[in-house]
């Protein structure tokens, strides 16, 4: 009787192990045959996103391979390292694409791409990920509204720093009806990215590719509210 | 015991519809049905997994011992879901980005393990495959109907983002029907209200069919029995 129980336990265990191997194989084979394509998709997506916020033809390097990571919770909206991609033309700095987070979105953080030219002018802003209310806050997506395009050409002097806010807060940027918080979060995050860039420009361009964390967390920490 | 083919199809598509009758897989159903295309994407992925898991479970039904059948089913389903997730990431990358977390969550869709346990583990592979297909299409039908309704009412469009699935040529079928929309439909309450209305509509139709089929004398007899 006992031996019978033990035998049936082992048989069950063997069957389970067999199916584990079968499942593992299935996943492994699929992964093997899709891995390259997925990596290619990710790369293409990143390249397309970066190209969206940089002026076309103004740079000649592989932006997605030329990056550093920096950490500044106050200005970049997250304690995690933030990637900064660098665009260059014949090895001279053209601009950067920063990937800061707007922490104060209506339903959580909003991830952004902020393209900034070497002279501190915004070349473009896009939203990468957000959970704002559909129909209200999602107007920050470029597919739904052209609001996000209005950052291009702005800089810390244009409008003056204290007017980098939505109209409700006496700023220079429109908000959307019903989603002031969303617009406010994005405007502040772009402004803070500009402040960070202004304070760290030379270090950002000088650091070797792939380097983590520039030494000085920014000093101009007057940004987020 | 033989189960007629037509019965299996009808059960999956209508009488025992996963979304409207069994009310299984509500989490992805409610969360993803914000547009027709989102619903279609998740529906196809779910159908593929259902089909594959049903066939596999049916093939192994003879030698999987009852005491370990549930872990085996879970392993089979999880493997297929991961495979489908990878394939979608590779071939429908944009759609994959939109559906995101809900693809891996197909694992937790009770409709799949429910069919494995209730049907596939007792029937031969061809019938199990048919059941998976019918159940999947039934579920997809609910997803696209609810998605289409919420999209139309919520933002006034239909088939928006079709290009993510069918390529650039499909932009032609992306319709703007109403100007603006009624936001509630896109929010979570809209999903619940919409699904409730669909369940009610199905019950109404069923009741109508029932009445049509009931022989008339039953009513007239009752009427005749009443005092004038």
Largest interface (C-beta under 8 Å): A-B, 23 and 29 residues
The termini of chain A sit apart by: 72 Å
Q: Report the average pLDDT across residues of chain B.
A: 85
Distance between the termini of chain B: 52 Å
Please supply descriptive tags for the structure shown above.
heterodimer; A: 225 residues; alpha+beta; 3 helices; 6 strands; 16% strand; elongated; disordered C terminus; B: 228 residues; mainly alpha; two-stranded antiparallel ribbon; globular
Give a quick summary of the entry.
The complex is a heterodimer of chains A (225) and B (228). By secondary structure, chain A is α+β, with helices and mostly antiparallel strands.
Set out the fold topology:
The complex is a heterodimer of chains A (225) and B (228).
Chain A (H helix, E strand, L loop, with lengths): L1 H51 L14 E4 L2 H4 L5 E8 L2 E7 L2 E2 L7 E8 L4 E8 L50 H27 L19
Antiparallel strand pairs in A: 1-2, 2-3, 3-5, 4-5, 5-6
Chain B lengths: L4 H11 L10 H7 L3 H24 L9 H23 L1 H7 L10 H9 L6 H31 L1 E2 L4 H4 L8 E2 L11 H26 L3 H9 L3
Antiparallel strand pairs in B: 1-2
Helix pairs in contact in B: 1-7, 3-4, 3-6, 3-7, 4-5, 4-6, 7-9
């Amino acid at each position: 009787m006992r031996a019978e129980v033990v035998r049936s336990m082992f048989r069950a265990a063997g069957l389970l192990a067999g199916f584990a191997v079968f499942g593992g194989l299935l996943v492994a084979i699929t992964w093997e045959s899709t891995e390259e394509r997925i990596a290619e998709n990710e790369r293409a997506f990143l390249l397309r996103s970066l190209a969206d916020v940089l002026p076309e033809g103004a740079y000649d390097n592989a932006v997605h391979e030329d990056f550093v990571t920096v950490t500044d919770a106050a200005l970049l909206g997250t304690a995690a390292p933030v990637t900064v991609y660098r665009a260059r033309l014949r090895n001279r700095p053209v601009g950067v694409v920063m990937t800061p987070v707007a922490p104060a979105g209506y339903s959580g953080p909003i991830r952004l791409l902020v393209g900034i030219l070497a002279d501190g002018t915004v070349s473009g802003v896009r939203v990468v990920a957000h959970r704002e209310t559909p129909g209200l806050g999602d107007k920050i997506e470029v597919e739904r509204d052209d609001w996000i395009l209005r950052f291009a050409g702005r800089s810390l002097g244009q409008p003056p720093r204290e007017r980098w806010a939505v109209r409700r807060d006496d700023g220079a940027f429109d908000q959307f009806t019903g989603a002031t918080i969303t617009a406010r979060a994005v405007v502040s995050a772009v402004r803070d990215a500009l402040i960070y860039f202004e304070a760290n420009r030379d270090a950002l361009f000088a650091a070797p590719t792939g380097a983590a964390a520039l030494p000085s967390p920014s000093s101009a920490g007057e940004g987020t509210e | 015991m033989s189960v007629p083919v037509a019965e299996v199809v009808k059960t999956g598509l209508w009488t025992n519809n996963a979304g409207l009758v069994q009310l299984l897989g509500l989490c992805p159903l409610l969360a993803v049905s914000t547009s027709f295309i989102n619903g279609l994407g998740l529906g196809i992925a779910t159908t593929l997994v259902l089909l594959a898991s049903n066939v596999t479970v049916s093939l192994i039904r003879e030698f999987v011992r009852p005491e370990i059948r549930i872990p085996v089913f879970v392993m089979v389903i999880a493997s297929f879901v991961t495979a489908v997730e990878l394939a979608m990431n590779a071939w429908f990358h944009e759609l994959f980005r939109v559906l995101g977390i809900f693809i891996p969550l197909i694992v937790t869709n009770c409709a799949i393990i429910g069919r494995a346990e209730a049907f596939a583990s007792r029937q031969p592979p061809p019938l199990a495959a048919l059941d998976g297909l019918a159940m999947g299409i039934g579920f997809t039908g609910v997803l696209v109907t609810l998605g289409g309704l919420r999209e139309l009412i919520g933002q006034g469009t239909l088939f928006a983002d079709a290009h993510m699935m069918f390529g650039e040529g499909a932009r032609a079928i992306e319709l703007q029907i109403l100007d603006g929309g009624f936001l509630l439909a896109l929010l979570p309450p809209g999903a619940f209200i919409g699904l409730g209305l669909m369940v009610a509509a199905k019950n109404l139709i069923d009741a109508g069919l029932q009445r049509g089929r009931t022989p008339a004398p039953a009513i007239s007899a009752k009427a005749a029995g009443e005092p004038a």
